[in-house]
Protein backbone atom coordinates (compact mmCIF):
# COMPACT_ATOMS: atom_id res chain seq x y z
CA UNK A 1 0.00 0.00 0.00
CA UNK A 2 1.32 3.47 -0.80
CA UNK A 3 2.01 5.75 2.17
CA UNK A 4 -0.77 8.16 3.15
CA UNK A 5 1.01 11.15 1.63
CA UNK A 6 1.24 9.51 -1.81
CA UNK A 7 -2.42 8.70 -2.47
CA UNK A 8 -4.78 11.15 -4.18
CA UNK A 9 -7.20 13.32 -2.21
CA UNK A 10 -10.65 14.34 -3.49
CA UNK A 11 -11.01 17.54 -5.52
CA UNK A 12 -14.22 19.47 -6.21
CA UNK A 13 -13.69 19.77 -9.97
CA UNK A 14 -16.31 18.21 -12.22
CA UNK A 15 -15.43 16.36 -15.44
CA UNK A 16 -14.61 18.33 -18.57
CA UNK A 17 -17.99 17.52 -20.18
CA UNK A 18 -19.90 18.43 -17.02
CA UNK A 19 -17.92 21.66 -16.80
CA UNK A 20 -18.86 22.60 -20.37
CA UNK A 21 -22.54 21.96 -19.65
CA UNK A 22 -22.42 23.82 -16.33
CA UNK A 23 -20.67 26.77 -17.90
CA UNK A 24 -23.45 27.00 -20.43
CA UNK A 25 -26.14 26.95 -17.70
CA UNK A 26 -24.17 29.36 -15.54
CA UNK A 27 -24.73 32.10 -18.09
CA UNK A 28 -28.29 32.37 -16.75
CA UNK A 29 -27.39 32.19 -13.06
CA UNK A 30 -26.85 35.15 -10.76
CA UNK A 31 -23.12 35.83 -10.88
CA UNK A 32 -20.94 36.82 -7.93
CA UNK A 33 -17.63 38.62 -8.64
CA UNK A 34 -15.22 37.00 -6.20
CA UNK A 35 -12.97 39.15 -4.05
CA UNK A 36 -9.21 38.51 -4.10
CA UNK A 37 -9.51 36.60 -0.82
CA UNK A 38 -12.43 34.51 -2.03
CA UNK A 39 -10.47 33.52 -5.15
CA UNK A 40 -7.69 32.19 -2.91
CA UNK A 41 -10.21 30.30 -0.76
CA UNK A 42 -12.02 28.89 -3.78
CA UNK A 43 -8.81 27.61 -5.36
CA UNK A 44 -7.94 25.63 -2.23
CA UNK A 45 -11.51 24.37 -1.87
CA UNK A 46 -11.52 23.11 -5.45
CA UNK A 47 -8.07 21.52 -5.48
CA UNK A 48 -8.57 19.70 -2.18
CA UNK A 49 -6.30 21.96 -0.12
CA UNK A 50 -9.22 22.59 2.25
CA UNK A 51 -10.38 18.94 2.46
CA UNK A 52 -12.80 17.98 4.10
CA UNK A 53 -14.71 21.14 3.08
CA UNK A 54 -17.02 20.65 0.11
CA UNK A 55 -17.83 24.32 -0.37
CA UNK A 56 -18.24 27.58 1.51
CA UNK A 57 -19.43 26.88 5.07
CA UNK A 58 -23.12 26.47 5.85
CA UNK A 59 -24.51 28.32 8.84
CA UNK A 60 -24.38 25.26 11.12
CA UNK A 61 -20.79 24.48 10.11
CA UNK A 62 -19.85 28.14 10.52
CA UNK A 63 -21.27 28.19 14.05
CA UNK A 64 -19.41 25.00 14.95
CA UNK A 65 -16.14 26.33 13.53
CA UNK A 66 -16.45 29.70 15.26
CA UNK A 67 -17.47 28.23 18.62
CA UNK A 68 -15.28 25.14 18.93
CA UNK A 69 -13.27 24.66 15.73
CA UNK A 70 -15.46 21.77 14.56
CA UNK A 71 -17.66 21.11 11.56
CA UNK A 72 -21.07 19.52 12.21
CA UNK A 73 -19.48 16.20 11.13
CA UNK A 74 -17.19 16.54 14.15
CA UNK A 75 -14.10 17.09 12.02
CA UNK A 76 -11.52 19.59 13.23
CA UNK A 77 -11.58 22.85 11.23
CA UNK A 78 -10.51 26.11 12.88
CA UNK A 79 -11.12 28.78 10.23
CA UNK A 80 -14.45 30.05 8.86
CA UNK A 81 -14.27 29.81 5.06
CA UNK A 82 -17.28 31.91 4.15
CA UNK A 83 -18.66 33.55 1.03
CA UNK A 84 -19.37 37.09 2.20
CA UNK A 85 -21.54 39.11 -0.18
CA UNK A 86 -23.18 42.52 -0.36
CA UNK A 87 -26.70 43.07 0.97
CA UNK A 88 -27.89 43.93 -2.55
CA UNK A 89 -26.64 40.62 -3.98
CA UNK A 90 -27.94 38.61 -1.01
CA UNK A 91 -31.42 40.15 -1.37
CA UNK A 92 -31.73 38.50 -4.79
CA UNK A 93 -30.67 35.02 -3.63
CA UNK A 94 -32.73 32.40 -1.83
CA UNK A 95 -31.51 28.99 -0.62
CA UNK A 96 -31.97 26.59 -3.52
CA UNK A 97 -30.44 29.01 -6.06
CA UNK A 98 -27.30 28.12 -8.01
CA UNK A 99 -24.86 31.01 -8.44
CA UNK A 100 -21.89 31.44 -10.76
CA UNK A 101 -18.62 32.40 -9.03
CA UNK A 102 -16.54 34.62 -11.30
CA UNK A 103 -12.95 35.91 -11.23
CA UNK A 104 -11.86 39.53 -11.86
CA UNK A 105 -12.33 39.18 -15.60
CA UNK A 106 -15.76 37.58 -15.32
CA UNK A 107 -14.54 34.03 -16.02
CA UNK A 108 -16.75 31.45 -14.26
CA UNK A 109 -14.58 29.37 -11.96
CA UNK A 110 -17.28 27.45 -10.11
CA UNK A 111 -20.98 27.05 -9.46
CA UNK A 112 -22.24 27.10 -5.90
CA UNK A 113 -25.61 25.68 -4.86
CA UNK A 114 -26.72 28.04 -2.12
CA UNK A 115 -28.17 26.15 0.84
CA UNK A 116 -27.75 28.82 3.53
CA UNK A 117 -27.96 32.57 3.78
CA UNK A 118 -27.43 34.43 7.04
CA UNK A 119 -26.20 37.63 8.65
CA UNK A 120 -23.25 36.74 10.88
CA UNK A 121 -22.47 38.23 14.26
CA UNK A 122 -19.09 39.63 13.25
CA UNK A 123 -18.14 40.75 16.75
CA UNK A 124 -18.57 37.16 17.97
CA UNK A 125 -16.58 35.84 15.01
CA UNK A 126 -13.77 38.29 15.82
CA UNK A 127 -13.73 37.36 19.53
CA UNK A 128 -13.79 33.62 18.98
CA UNK A 129 -11.59 33.22 15.92
CA UNK A 130 -9.07 36.03 16.39
CA UNK A 131 -9.27 36.35 20.16
CA UNK A 132 -10.45 39.98 20.26
CA UNK A 133 -12.78 42.31 18.41
CA UNK A 134 -9.89 44.71 17.90
CA UNK A 135 -9.44 46.55 14.60
CA UNK A 136 -5.66 46.50 14.98
CA UNK A 137 -5.92 42.84 13.91
CA UNK A 138 -5.75 42.85 10.09
CA UNK A 139 -8.42 40.14 9.73
CA UNK A 140 -10.77 41.79 12.23
CA UNK A 141 -10.35 44.99 10.28
CA UNK A 142 -11.08 43.04 7.08
CA UNK A 143 -14.12 41.40 8.68
CA UNK A 144 -15.68 44.71 9.67
CA UNK A 145 -14.56 46.95 6.83
CA UNK A 146 -14.05 44.80 3.73
CA UNK A 147 -16.16 41.65 4.11
CA UNK A 148 -19.80 41.86 3.02
CA UNK A 149 -22.59 41.79 5.63
CA UNK A 150 -24.25 38.52 4.52
CA UNK A 151 -22.76 35.03 4.20
CA UNK A 152 -23.86 32.42 1.66
CA UNK A 153 -23.04 28.76 2.15
CA UNK A 154 -23.29 25.61 0.06
CA UNK A 155 -21.40 23.03 -1.97
CA UNK A 156 -19.19 24.10 -4.86
CA UNK A 157 -18.69 22.45 -8.25
CA UNK A 158 -15.34 23.48 -9.71
CA UNK A 159 -15.10 24.33 -13.41
CA UNK A 160 -11.53 25.60 -13.63
CA UNK A 161 -8.79 26.91 -11.34
CA UNK A 162 -8.01 30.63 -11.22
CA UNK A 163 -5.37 31.58 -13.80
CA UNK A 164 -1.91 32.61 -12.56
CA UNK A 165 0.50 34.19 -14.97
CA UNK A 166 3.41 34.27 -12.53
CA UNK A 167 5.68 31.42 -11.40
CA UNK A 168 3.44 28.80 -12.99
CA UNK A 169 6.07 26.09 -12.73
CA UNK A 170 6.33 26.62 -8.98
CA UNK A 171 2.62 26.26 -8.15
CA UNK A 172 1.35 22.80 -7.26
CA UNK A 173 -2.02 21.44 -6.23
CA UNK A 174 -2.12 19.01 -3.29
CA UNK A 175 -2.36 16.09 -5.73
CA UNK A 176 0.54 17.37 -7.81
CA UNK A 177 2.69 17.52 -4.69
CA UNK A 178 1.54 14.07 -3.59
CA UNK A 179 2.44 12.71 -7.02
CA UNK A 180 5.85 14.38 -6.77
CA UNK A 181 6.49 12.84 -3.35
CA UNK A 182 5.46 9.47 -4.70
CA UNK A 183 7.79 9.80 -7.66
CA UNK A 184 10.69 10.88 -5.46
CA UNK A 185 9.71 8.34 -2.79
CA UNK A 186 9.61 11.07 -0.14
CA UNK A 187 7.73 9.31 2.67
CA UNK A 188 8.55 11.85 5.36
CA UNK A 189 8.15 15.48 4.38
CA UNK A 190 8.63 18.41 6.74
CA UNK A 191 6.96 21.63 5.58
CA UNK A 192 8.18 25.13 6.28
CA UNK A 193 5.44 27.74 5.99
CA UNK A 194 6.57 31.31 5.46
CA UNK A 195 5.45 34.79 4.40
CA UNK A 196 8.92 36.35 4.67
CA UNK A 197 12.15 36.14 2.70
CA UNK A 198 14.49 33.36 3.84
CA UNK A 199 17.71 34.43 5.52
CA UNK A 200 20.54 32.29 6.91
CA UNK A 201 18.78 31.65 10.24
CA UNK A 202 15.76 30.19 8.45
CA UNK A 203 17.92 28.12 6.18
CA UNK A 204 19.76 26.71 9.18
CA UNK A 205 16.53 26.09 11.06
CA UNK A 206 14.75 24.33 8.22
CA UNK A 207 17.80 22.25 7.50
CA UNK A 208 17.98 21.17 11.15
CA UNK A 209 14.24 20.47 11.24
CA UNK A 210 14.58 18.16 8.25
CA UNK A 211 17.53 16.40 9.84
CA UNK A 212 15.73 15.97 13.18
CA UNK A 213 12.60 14.63 11.53
CA UNK A 214 14.72 12.52 9.15
CA UNK A 215 12.57 13.95 6.43
CA UNK A 216 12.83 15.81 3.17
CA UNK A 217 12.02 19.50 3.22
CA UNK A 218 9.27 21.37 1.41
CA UNK A 219 9.56 25.15 1.51
CA UNK A 220 5.93 26.14 1.12
CA UNK A 221 5.58 29.92 1.11
CA UNK A 222 2.26 31.70 0.99
CA UNK A 223 1.81 33.78 -2.15
CA UNK A 224 -1.92 34.51 -1.84
CA UNK A 225 -2.54 37.15 0.79
CA UNK A 226 -0.32 37.79 3.79
CA UNK A 227 -0.08 40.60 6.31
CA UNK A 228 -0.43 44.11 4.86
CA UNK A 229 3.05 45.60 4.56
CA UNK A 230 4.84 42.29 3.90
CA UNK A 231 7.44 41.99 1.14
CA UNK A 232 5.51 41.29 -2.08
CA UNK A 233 5.48 37.70 -3.27
CA UNK A 234 7.31 38.41 -6.55
CA UNK A 235 10.37 39.55 -4.63
CA UNK A 236 10.05 36.76 -2.09
CA UNK A 237 9.88 34.01 -4.69
CA UNK A 238 13.04 35.34 -6.34
CA UNK A 239 14.65 35.22 -2.87
CA UNK A 240 13.47 31.63 -2.25
CA UNK A 241 14.83 30.57 -5.60
CA UNK A 242 18.17 32.09 -4.69
CA UNK A 243 18.29 30.08 -1.43
CA UNK A 244 17.23 26.76 -2.88
CA UNK A 245 20.69 25.68 -3.97
CA UNK A 246 22.05 26.28 -0.44
CA UNK A 247 20.41 23.01 0.61
CA UNK A 248 21.98 19.63 -0.03
CA UNK A 249 21.05 18.51 -3.54
CA UNK A 250 17.74 16.64 -3.98
CA UNK A 251 16.67 17.01 -0.35
CA UNK A 252 14.51 20.07 -0.69
CA UNK A 253 11.66 21.34 -2.87
CA UNK A 254 9.95 24.72 -3.23
CA UNK A 255 6.25 25.08 -3.98
CA UNK A 256 3.99 28.15 -3.77
CA UNK A 257 0.70 28.09 -1.88
CA UNK A 258 -2.06 30.46 -2.95
CA UNK A 259 -3.48 30.79 0.54
CA UNK A 260 -5.11 33.91 1.96
CA UNK A 261 -3.68 33.99 5.47
CA UNK A 262 -5.78 35.29 8.37
CA UNK A 263 -2.94 35.95 10.84
CA UNK A 264 -4.93 34.07 13.48
CA UNK A 265 -1.94 32.73 15.47
CA UNK A 266 -2.96 29.49 17.26
CA UNK A 267 -6.00 28.72 15.11
CA UNK A 268 -3.99 29.55 12.03
CA UNK A 269 -1.27 27.06 13.02
CA UNK A 270 -3.84 24.25 13.29
CA UNK A 271 -5.37 25.32 9.97
CA UNK A 272 -1.93 25.39 8.31
CA UNK A 273 -1.29 21.88 9.61
CA UNK A 274 -4.53 20.55 8.11
CA UNK A 275 -3.82 22.27 4.78
CA UNK A 276 -0.30 20.79 4.74
CA UNK A 277 -1.67 17.34 5.55
CA UNK A 278 -3.70 17.66 2.37
CA UNK A 279 -0.55 18.65 0.51
CA UNK A 280 1.25 15.49 1.60
CA UNK A 281 3.18 16.74 4.62
CA UNK A 282 4.06 14.44 7.49
CA UNK A 283 5.76 17.10 9.64
CA UNK A 284 5.20 20.82 10.03
CA UNK A 285 7.42 23.52 11.52
CA UNK A 286 5.61 25.79 13.99
CA UNK A 287 7.63 28.72 15.19
CA UNK A 288 7.53 31.30 17.90
CA UNK A 289 4.48 33.55 17.37
CA UNK A 290 3.32 31.54 14.33
CA UNK A 291 1.17 33.68 11.98
CA UNK A 292 1.16 36.49 14.53
CA UNK A 293 -0.69 39.68 13.56
CA UNK A 294 1.56 42.10 15.49
CA UNK A 295 0.45 44.42 18.28
CA UNK A 296 -3.13 45.08 19.37
CA UNK A 297 -4.58 48.54 19.97
CA UNK A 298 -3.08 48.49 23.49
CA UNK A 299 0.35 47.87 21.95
CA UNK A 300 0.47 44.31 23.30
CA UNK A 301 0.85 41.04 21.37
CA UNK A 302 -2.44 39.42 20.38
CA UNK A 303 -1.19 35.94 21.28
CA UNK A 304 1.42 34.51 23.59
CA UNK A 305 4.64 33.48 21.78
CA UNK A 306 4.01 29.74 22.22
CA UNK A 307 0.19 29.67 22.11
CA UNK A 308 0.24 28.41 18.53
CA UNK A 309 2.57 25.54 19.42
CA UNK A 310 0.39 24.66 22.44
CA UNK A 311 -2.86 24.54 20.47
CA UNK A 312 -1.21 22.58 17.68
CA UNK A 313 0.18 20.07 20.16
CA UNK A 314 -3.29 19.50 21.65
CA UNK A 315 -4.69 18.61 18.22
CA UNK A 316 -1.61 17.05 16.66
CA UNK A 317 -2.93 13.48 16.51
CA UNK A 318 -6.12 14.59 14.81
CA UNK A 319 -4.28 16.83 12.35
CA UNK A 320 -2.10 13.87 11.48
CA UNK A 321 1.01 15.98 10.88
CA UNK A 322 3.71 16.01 13.51
CA UNK A 323 4.87 19.40 14.78
CA UNK A 324 8.54 20.30 14.69
CA UNK A 325 8.80 23.20 17.05
CA UNK A 326 10.80 26.12 15.79
CA UNK A 327 13.91 26.96 17.74
CA UNK A 328 14.90 30.60 17.80
CA UNK A 329 18.23 30.56 15.95
CA UNK A 330 20.93 33.15 16.62
CA UNK A 331 24.44 33.66 15.27
CA UNK A 332 27.36 32.89 17.56
CA UNK A 333 30.25 35.05 16.45
CA UNK A 334 33.07 33.00 18.06
CA UNK A 335 31.95 29.83 16.32
CA UNK A 336 30.73 31.61 13.16
CA UNK A 337 27.52 29.59 13.03
CA UNK A 338 23.82 29.61 13.89
CA UNK A 339 22.70 27.78 17.02
CA UNK A 340 19.42 27.49 18.94
CA UNK A 341 19.26 30.41 21.40
CA UNK A 342 18.34 28.11 24.31
CA UNK A 343 21.46 25.95 23.88
CA UNK A 344 24.06 28.71 24.07
CA UNK A 345 26.33 29.09 27.13
CA UNK A 346 27.00 32.48 28.76
CA UNK A 347 29.95 34.55 27.63
CA UNK A 348 29.76 34.11 23.86
CA UNK A 349 28.84 36.90 21.44
CA UNK A 350 25.39 36.46 20.00
CA UNK A 351 24.40 38.49 16.93
CA UNK A 352 20.87 39.05 15.67
CA UNK A 353 19.16 41.48 13.30
CA UNK A 354 15.43 41.96 13.88
CA UNK A 355 12.91 42.44 11.09
CA UNK A 356 12.58 46.11 12.04
CA UNK A 357 16.35 46.59 11.96
CA UNK A 358 16.57 44.86 8.57
CA UNK A 359 13.89 47.17 7.13
CA UNK A 360 15.77 50.18 8.53
CA UNK A 361 19.01 49.06 6.90
CA UNK A 362 17.29 48.54 3.57
CA UNK A 363 15.51 51.88 3.87
CA UNK A 364 18.72 53.73 4.63
CA UNK A 365 20.89 51.77 2.21
CA UNK A 366 23.11 50.44 5.07
CA UNK A 367 25.22 47.29 5.14
CA UNK A 368 23.51 43.92 5.62
CA UNK A 369 26.21 41.51 6.79
CA UNK A 370 26.84 38.17 5.14
CA UNK A 371 26.40 36.29 8.42
CA UNK A 372 22.78 37.48 8.38
CA UNK A 373 21.70 36.78 4.81
CA UNK A 374 22.83 35.56 1.44
CA UNK A 375 24.14 38.22 -0.98
CA UNK A 376 21.66 36.97 -3.63
CA UNK A 377 18.75 37.54 -1.24
CA UNK A 378 19.97 40.98 -0.21
CA UNK A 379 20.35 41.90 -3.88
CA UNK A 380 16.71 41.02 -4.55
CA UNK A 381 15.50 42.94 -1.50
CA UNK A 382 17.50 46.01 -2.47
CA UNK A 383 16.04 45.91 -5.99
CA UNK A 384 12.54 46.07 -4.51
CA UNK A 385 13.32 48.39 -1.63
CA UNK A 386 15.78 51.00 -2.80
CA UNK A 387 16.79 53.46 -0.05
CA UNK A 388 13.82 55.54 0.99
CA UNK A 389 15.27 58.70 -0.51
CA UNK A 390 14.73 57.06 -3.93
CA UNK A 391 11.24 55.72 -3.26
CA UNK A 392 7.89 57.36 -3.81
CA UNK A 393 5.75 58.49 -0.88
CA UNK A 394 2.42 60.07 0.00
CA UNK A 395 1.82 62.97 2.35
CA UNK A 396 -1.79 62.75 3.46
CA UNK A 397 -3.16 65.90 5.12
CA UNK A 398 -6.41 65.47 7.03
CA UNK A 399 -8.38 68.02 9.04
CA UNK A 400 -11.50 70.16 9.16
CA UNK A 401 -12.61 72.42 6.32
CA UNK A 402 -10.66 75.67 6.62
CA UNK A 403 -7.98 74.12 8.83
CA UNK A 404 -5.24 75.11 6.40
CA UNK A 405 -4.68 71.74 4.69
CA UNK A 406 -4.70 73.07 1.14
CA UNK A 407 -2.53 76.07 1.90
CA UNK A 408 0.17 74.05 3.64
CA UNK A 409 -0.10 71.31 1.00
CA UNK A 410 0.47 73.89 -1.73
CA UNK A 411 3.48 75.34 0.04
CA UNK A 412 4.87 71.85 0.54
CA UNK A 413 4.40 71.00 -3.11
CA UNK A 414 6.31 74.08 -4.24
CA UNK A 415 9.15 73.43 -1.78
CA UNK A 416 9.45 69.81 -2.94
CA UNK A 417 9.47 70.92 -6.58
CA UNK A 418 12.18 73.41 -5.76
CA UNK A 419 14.25 70.55 -4.32
CA UNK A 420 13.60 68.45 -7.47
CA UNK A 421 14.36 64.78 -8.03
CA UNK A 422 10.84 63.32 -8.00
CA UNK A 423 7.60 64.35 -9.71
CA UNK A 424 5.02 65.84 -7.32
CA UNK A 425 1.22 65.67 -7.67
CA UNK A 426 -1.20 67.56 -5.45
CA UNK A 427 -4.57 65.91 -4.94
CA UNK A 428 -6.35 68.72 -3.14
CA UNK A 429 -9.86 68.11 -1.76
CA UNK A 430 -11.59 70.64 -4.00
CA UNK A 431 -9.59 69.67 -7.10
CA UNK A 432 -10.41 65.98 -6.63
CA UNK A 433 -14.07 66.74 -6.13
CA UNK A 434 -14.02 68.60 -9.43
CA UNK A 435 -12.08 66.13 -11.57
CA UNK A 436 -12.48 62.68 -9.97
CA UNK A 437 -15.55 62.81 -7.74
CA UNK A 438 -17.88 65.40 -9.24
CA UNK A 439 -20.92 63.16 -8.85
CA UNK A 440 -20.35 62.54 -5.14
CA UNK A 441 -21.96 64.25 -2.15
CA UNK A 442 -21.01 64.22 1.54
CA UNK A 443 -22.73 61.13 2.97
CA UNK A 444 -20.41 58.68 4.74
CA UNK A 445 -20.63 56.36 1.77
CA UNK A 446 -19.73 59.07 -0.73
CA UNK A 447 -16.92 60.47 1.40
CA UNK A 448 -15.46 56.95 1.64
CA UNK A 449 -15.61 56.48 -2.13
CA UNK A 450 -13.97 59.86 -2.59
CA UNK A 451 -11.11 59.09 -0.19
CA UNK A 452 -10.55 55.64 -1.66
CA UNK A 453 -10.24 57.18 -5.12
CA UNK A 454 -7.65 59.61 -3.79
CA UNK A 455 -5.90 56.71 -2.07
CA UNK A 456 -5.85 54.66 -5.22
CA UNK A 457 -4.30 57.46 -7.30
CA UNK A 458 -1.82 58.26 -4.51
CA UNK A 459 -0.81 54.60 -4.22
CA UNK A 460 -0.14 54.38 -7.96
CA UNK A 461 1.95 57.58 -7.88
CA UNK A 462 3.85 56.29 -4.83
CA UNK A 463 4.45 52.86 -6.34
CA UNK A 464 5.93 54.50 -9.42
CA UNK A 465 8.39 56.61 -7.46
CA UNK A 466 6.54 59.94 -7.32
CA UNK A 467 5.31 62.12 -4.48
CA UNK A 468 1.55 62.43 -3.91
CA UNK A 469 0.26 65.15 -1.63
CA UNK A 470 -3.39 64.71 -0.64
CA UNK A 471 -5.48 67.26 1.24
CA UNK A 472 -9.04 66.06 1.79
CA UNK A 473 -10.98 66.26 5.05
CA UNK A 474 -10.99 62.42 5.25
CA UNK A 475 -13.02 62.32 8.46
CA UNK A 476 -13.08 58.53 9.05
CA UNK A 477 -10.27 56.57 10.71
CA UNK A 478 -11.05 53.29 8.97
CA UNK A 479 -10.96 54.87 5.52
CA UNK A 480 -7.69 56.64 6.23
CA UNK A 481 -6.30 53.32 7.38
CA UNK A 482 -7.43 51.63 4.15
CA UNK A 483 -5.59 54.32 2.19
CA UNK A 484 -2.49 53.85 4.33
CA UNK A 485 -2.50 50.13 3.59
CA UNK A 486 -2.89 50.76 -0.14
CA UNK A 487 -0.04 53.28 -0.24
CA UNK A 488 2.35 51.40 2.05
CA UNK A 489 2.39 48.50 -0.40
CA UNK A 490 4.54 50.75 -2.62
CA UNK A 491 6.21 53.33 -0.37
CA UNK A 492 5.84 55.48 2.72
CA UNK A 493 2.61 57.05 3.98
CA UNK A 494 2.95 60.21 6.04
CA UNK A 495 -0.24 61.28 7.76
CA UNK A 496 -0.35 64.95 8.77
CA UNK A 497 -3.21 65.96 11.02
CA UNK A 498 -3.93 69.64 10.55
CA UNK A 499 -5.43 70.01 14.01
CA UNK A 500 -6.62 73.60 13.83
CA UNK A 501 -9.59 73.80 16.21
CA UNK A 502 -13.18 74.00 15.03
CA UNK A 503 -13.53 77.42 16.70
CA UNK A 504 -10.58 78.77 14.72
CA UNK A 505 -11.79 77.24 11.42
CA UNK A 506 -15.22 78.71 12.02
CA UNK A 507 -13.77 82.08 12.99
CA UNK A 508 -11.83 82.17 9.69
CA UNK A 509 -14.73 80.78 7.66
CA UNK A 510 -12.82 81.50 4.43
CA UNK A 511 -15.51 80.10 2.15
CA UNK A 512 -18.49 81.20 4.24
CA UNK A 513 -19.53 77.55 4.54
CA UNK A 514 -19.61 77.35 8.36
CA UNK A 515 -22.17 80.16 8.46
CA UNK A 516 -24.35 78.29 5.97
CA UNK A 517 -23.87 75.06 7.90
CA UNK A 518 -24.92 76.73 11.18
CA UNK A 519 -28.02 78.03 9.42
CA UNK A 520 -28.75 74.48 8.27
CA UNK A 521 -28.36 75.48 4.63
CA UNK A 522 -25.54 72.94 4.12
CA UNK A 523 -26.28 69.51 5.54
CA UNK A 524 -23.76 66.96 6.84
CA UNK A 525 -21.08 69.59 7.36
CA UNK A 526 -17.95 68.20 8.99
CA UNK A 527 -17.53 69.44 12.55
CA UNK A 528 -21.01 70.98 12.67
CA UNK A 529 -23.48 68.28 11.66
CA UNK A 530 -21.13 65.48 10.63
CA UNK A 531 -18.32 63.68 12.51
CA UNK A 532 -14.56 64.11 12.30
CA UNK A 533 -12.59 61.25 13.87
CA UNK A 534 -9.19 62.60 14.91
CA UNK A 535 -6.12 60.54 13.92
CA UNK A 536 -4.64 58.90 17.02
CA UNK A 537 -1.09 58.38 15.76
CA UNK A 538 -0.37 60.62 12.78
CA UNK A 539 3.25 61.02 11.71
CA UNK A 540 2.83 64.77 12.38
CA UNK A 541 0.25 67.04 13.97
CA UNK A 542 0.22 70.79 13.24
CA UNK A 543 -2.08 73.58 14.30
CA UNK A 544 -2.13 76.51 11.91
CA UNK A 545 -3.35 78.89 14.59
CA UNK A 546 0.10 78.65 16.18
CA UNK A 547 2.37 78.84 13.12
CA UNK A 548 2.51 80.44 9.69
CA UNK A 549 2.28 78.48 6.45
CA UNK A 550 6.02 78.50 5.76
CA UNK A 551 6.82 77.06 9.17
CA UNK A 552 4.07 74.44 8.87
CA UNK A 553 5.42 73.28 5.50
CA UNK A 554 8.91 73.26 6.97
CA UNK A 555 7.74 71.01 9.81
CA UNK A 556 6.46 68.55 7.22
CA UNK A 557 9.81 68.68 5.42
CA UNK A 558 11.60 67.94 8.71
CA UNK A 559 9.36 64.94 9.26
CA UNK A 560 10.08 63.69 5.74
CA UNK A 561 13.78 64.15 6.40
CA UNK A 562 13.66 62.28 9.71
CA UNK A 563 11.97 59.38 7.90
CA UNK A 564 14.77 59.32 5.34
CA UNK A 565 12.44 60.30 2.50
CA UNK A 566 14.33 63.45 1.49
CA UNK A 567 17.70 65.02 2.13
CA UNK A 568 17.51 68.63 3.32
CA UNK A 569 20.86 69.95 2.09
S1 LIG B 1 -14.19 64.38 2.31
O1 LIG B 1 -15.01 64.23 3.52
O2 LIG B 1 -12.78 64.14 2.60
O3 LIG B 1 -14.70 63.56 1.20
O4 LIG B 1 -14.33 65.91 1.88
P1 LIG B 1 -13.46 66.66 0.77
O5 LIG B 1 -13.43 65.90 -0.50
O6 LIG B 1 -12.14 67.05 1.34
O7 LIG B 1 -14.31 67.96 0.46
C1 LIG B 1 -14.33 68.96 1.37
C2 LIG B 1 -14.56 70.29 0.67
O8 LIG B 1 -15.90 70.33 0.22
C3 LIG B 1 -16.56 71.51 0.69
N1 LIG B 1 -17.81 71.04 1.34
C4 LIG B 1 -17.93 70.33 2.49
N2 LIG B 1 -17.04 69.92 3.43
C5 LIG B 1 -17.49 69.20 4.47
N3 LIG B 1 -18.79 68.88 4.66
C6 LIG B 1 -19.72 69.26 3.76
N4 LIG B 1 -21.00 68.94 3.94
C7 LIG B 1 -19.30 70.02 2.63
N5 LIG B 1 -19.95 70.54 1.56
C8 LIG B 1 -19.04 71.16 0.80
C9 LIG B 1 -15.58 72.24 1.57
O9 LIG B 1 -15.21 73.39 0.84
C10 LIG B 1 -14.36 71.35 1.71
O10 LIG B 1 -13.16 71.98 1.31
P2 LIG B 1 -11.97 72.31 2.33
O11 LIG B 1 -10.78 72.55 1.44
O12 LIG B 1 -11.75 71.14 3.24
O13 LIG B 1 -12.39 73.55 3.04
TrEMBL record:
| GO process annotations (BP) | hydrogen sulfide biosynthetic process; sulfate assimilation via adenylyl sulfate reduction; sulfate assimilation, phosphoadenylyl sulfate reduction by phosphoadenylyl-sulfate reductase (thioredoxin)
Output the Gene Ontology terms for molecular function. Answer: adenylylsulfate kinase activity; ATP binding; sulfate adenylyltransferase (ATP) activity
Give the reaction(s) catalysed. adenosine 5'-phosphosulfate + ATP = 3'-phosphoadenylyl sulfate + ADP + H(+); sulfate + ATP + H(+) = adenosine 5'-phosphosulfate + diphosphate
Q: What InterPro entries does UniProt report for this protein, alphabetically?
A: APS, APS_kinase_dom, ATP-Sase_PUA-like_dom, P-loop_NTPase, PUA-like_sf, Rossmann-like_a/b/a_fold, Sulf_AdTrans/APS_kinase, Sulfurylase_cat_dom
Q: Which CDD domains does the annotation name?
A: APSK, ATPS
Presence of keyword rRNA processing: no
Which pathway features in its UniProt record?
Sulfur metabolism; hydrogen sulfide biosynthesis; sulfite from sulfate: step 2/3
**Record's Gene Ontology CC terms?**
cytoplasm
TM region(s), chain numbering: none
UniProt: ATP binding residues:
399-406
Q: Describe the location of the APS kinase domain by residue ranges.
A: 391-543
For this chain, the family text in UniProt reads: Belongs to the APS kinase family.
Looking up PANTHER family in the UniProt record yields: SULFATE ADENYLYLTRANSFERASE
Name of the featured protein: Adenylyl-sulfate kinase
